[in-house]
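Field reference: "sequence" (input) and "structure" (output). Example, DUF2281 domain-containing protein:
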Amino acid sequence: MTNTSLKLEINSLPKELRDEVADFILMLKKKVKNSRKLNAREFGYAKGKIELRKDFDKLL
């Protein structure tokens, strides 16, 4: 569907449905914005934040 035909379809809807389309578009934009925040962490990100006891692998 081209931009022009999409605009024509949206404009042919009643105002209430056009408002729903606008809300849906805002929701999609937020979804994309939130998914961009997830970046791969750098190697060694937690270095120094976790300590293991010297006997952590001993039998209990």
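Residues 15-36 form the longest helix (22 residues).
Residues 3-36 form one domain.
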